[in-house]
Design a protein that fits this description.
Keywords: Membrane, Transmembrane, Transmembrane helix. One of its GO terms (cellular component) is membrane. It comes from Ectopseudomonas toyotomiensis. GO terms for molecular function: cyclic-guanylate-specific phosphodiesterase activity. By secondary structure, the protein is an alpha/beta fold. It has twelve helices and ten strands. The chain has an eight-stranded mixed barrel with strand order 1-2-4-5-6-7-8-9, surrounded by four helices. The structure holds ligand C2E and magnesium ion (3 copies).
Amino acid sequence: ARIAMQDAAQQPGRLQLYQQGRDAAQQRQIRLIRDLRHAAAQGQLLLHYQPKLDIREGLVRQAEALLRWQHPQLGMVSPGEFIPLAEHTGSIQLLSAWVIEEAMRQLQEWDGRGVWVQLSLNISTTDLLDAELPGRVGALLARYRVAPEQLIFEITESGVMLDPERALQVLHGLRGYGIGLSVDDFGTGYSSLAQLKRMPVQELKIDQSFIRELDDHSEDSVIVRSTIEMSHSLGLKVVAEGVELASGLDLLQRWHCDTAQGYLISRPLAAEAFEAWLAQPYRSPLAKVH
Ligand code: C2E
Ligand code: MG
Ligand code: MG
Ligand code: MG
């Protein structure tokens, strides 16, 4: 922004345009922050589901639930835009509560139709500091009769770094109910292996920035291979996120990565579309030869 400002300052006309743009962006933010507080109550939130492919079995029995906000005037707002705002203004807990309950409701509905999936949910930094979260989740598990093995909570390393003692207590509480735990966006934070060892997690998701353009000789390939090996020696399953290329999936399969998620397998889908997708005979894009 500073560069844009300097640039614009040299040309008065452009400065005005720049300021107008910035004002519009600020106004949008203010509006989103205000409207977020009522989004859940007004029925504007929904979950989309992105399949996770079990690379060994060539099957999909897992998905990540991703929050969507259908704003009545602004249309679909992406979580990349509104989640950070919610985190900074305190409405994240409201959103998380909605996500957790909606996921359980959906699992119960699917269970009634004989559909079994394991869902991953994204949990924010703030949630990890909420000592009451495990108890509330436990109560919801009972209310919706969801098996805890059907849920994985995705956390980020930075979320744990903020207040490790408190976060670890919350994580152990959730784990105590039998919920799975996963480290999201691995490789982008500042975590240490020591930290990872202390966390009661069973899965690690390699950030998509290492995966999207994966090939056999890049630096990314060294990072990805060694992360897979390290995870396995720590007893963790590995998910590669952002798999877009068949060639990338082939490499991941060769390197014994456990799970793949990305546009190559499927984009995130609305609940009904996801259910229909699951019901179809699936031909995975995995190479047949090992
Ligand atoms: P994330 O948890 O790392 O989720 C993966 C994101 O990557 C999703 O974006 C997904 O649509 C996208 N993605 C998946 N495969 C590909 C691919 O092959 N190529 C590309 N380019 N992108 C791919 P989305 O849904 O926009 O979510 C963005 C972020 O917002 C999430 O990143 C997560 O940090 C946050 N988020 C989403 N839903 C929730 C939620 O319910 N609660 C919280 N706290 N955060 C959420
Ligand atoms: Mg995630
Ligand atoms: Mg991620
Ligand atoms: Mg993320």
